[in-house]
Amino acid sequence: MYLEPSNRKPITLTTLAKMKREQHKFAVLTAYDASFAALIDAAGVEVILVGDSLGMVVQGQPTTVPVTIEDMIYHTRMVARGCSTALLMADMPFASYATPEQALRNAARLMQEGGAQIVKLEGGAWLVETVRLLSRNGIPVCVHLGLLPQSVHKLGGYRVQGREEPAARQIIDEALLLQEAGADLALVECIPAELGARLTEALAIPLIGIGAGAGCDAQVLVSYDMLNITAGRRPKFSKNFLTGQDSLQAAVAEYVRAVKSGEFPGPEHCIA
Ligand code: KIV
Asked: Of 57, 63, 194, 265, which is most buried with the most CB atoms under 10 A?
């Protein structure tokens, strides 16, 4: 049901934790400017992510690697102006959190100068000290596991992660360590659906999936992919929600409905 933004309560981490406990799925989308943020917020998305995917879909770069902390602060500030009820999450860009102290400085900038309410970092067990320090300083953290786009050159491409049992076990173990260190949310990208379901079950914190199957507590897509704006090929796990809709608002509302009802992702968007 569509609600005027003023009629909805702001979404907090407590809201999301309760949704996980009560098995109500929530919807996440990326935004990079105030107009899109307002449209997405009004459609009832619970979390807006200022993703470093902006490097590819807004700046036209081949990867997210060139995105800087200044770029992220600029776009987060724009999105904050259009976001009234959704929780505002911002990505920490490539090499902006190499040490816990650098992470604290840059996360504080995203919150103070950009208006972010939670920051997202890509990585596993090596982030434990960083998550602990951010958490101690009152900075909410989402950890991004599975396929790590900032490590594309190290990984040798955008590949499915966690296919074999040792790799799957490692993703689960690292997620548990990061939860223990104080992570508030986890996001997992491009893993088999069965592993997404195992990880959701193992974690007490909400798990957001992208290409991670229907078992996750929430789904995220790059808004330009699901609105068919992205030039070139869309990832197999994405879906064009503009098909059959007469407006961007209707397409986003349909995404929210499909995520909450468990219709999206369907088997054709999942990795076996
Ligand atoms: O940068 C981004 O948009 C992301 C999503 C792919 C989850 O991290």
From this structure: 265
